[in-house]
Amino acid sequence: MSESETARLGARVRAYRTMRRMTVRGLAGEAGASASFISQLERGQAGASVGMLRRIALALGVTVADLFSEDDEVGHRVVPRSGRPELPAGPGARKYLISQRPLRNLEMYAGEFDPGASTGAEPYTHGDSQEILLVIRGEVTLWLGPPGEAARHVLGPGDSVEYRTSLPHRVANEGESTAEVLWVVSPPTPAT
């Protein structure tokens, strides 16, 4: 990697860290590096292994490719419904990313659940962020809490609920028509 490439990489790491309101020490702790290494990397005075770049990207909530992207920031982005990236979901469920990378202060997803579809048989967690679930149409059932102790909430159009992503949760459509929901998560949960 040339000096100019190393400098651009360092500047992008610093920009993403600043966007995430992380300190050098905070990023270092999450990436398993020393604060002095992160500081040197950001100033273009050190390179990083692929493994270290992966850990830094994970800590920043971006991909390794994002760290090398030359795309300039834009003031706004328009994503038509047909252009939403689709994420893996269970049978009869569809999940779309609304917020575009690089994720900054929040991430937003649209979901559709056919009758009988769900986020999976078991509740799940992801990080420790604030999450809001808003029902757009149809009806969904949300379970919050560990299996056997989960509180059950039936939500209809316009209903919302807020919870921590560290709390086990599961969404299912027990109704007879397709349900549409939005999830908003802040700050973005780390990529896995």
What would your notes on this structure say?
By secondary structure, this protein is α+β, with helices and mostly antiparallel strands. The protein is 26% helix and 26% strand. The strands form two sheets. Strands 1-2-3-9-4-7 form a six-stranded antiparallel sheet, with no helix packed on it. The longest helix has 17 residues. The relative contact order is 0.15. The mean pLDDT is 87. InterPro entries: Cro/C1-type_HTH, Cupin_2, Lambda_DNA-bd_dom_sf, RmlC-like_jellyroll, RmlC_Cupin_sf, TransReg_Diox_bact_type. Keywords: DNA-binding. This is Transcriptional regulator with XRE-family HTH domain. Pfam families: Cupin_2, HTH_31. It comes from Nonomuraea roseoviolacea subsp. carminata.
Instruction: Please give the share of residues in helix.
Output: 25-40%
Q: How many β-strand stretches?
A: 9
Overall spatial form:
elongated
Computed over alpha carbons, the radius of gyration is 19 Å
Low-confidence stretches: none
The largest sheet is: 6 strands, antiparallel
Based on helices, strands and strand pairing, what is the structural class?
A: alpha+beta
The helix tally amounts to 5
Biggest β-sheet: strands ordered side by side in the sheet: 1-2-3-9-4-7
Strand content: 25-35%
Mean pLDDT: 87
Q: What distance lies between the first and last C-alpha atoms, to the nearest angstrom?
A: 27 Å
Which series of helices and strands comes N to C?
HHHHHEEEEEEEEE
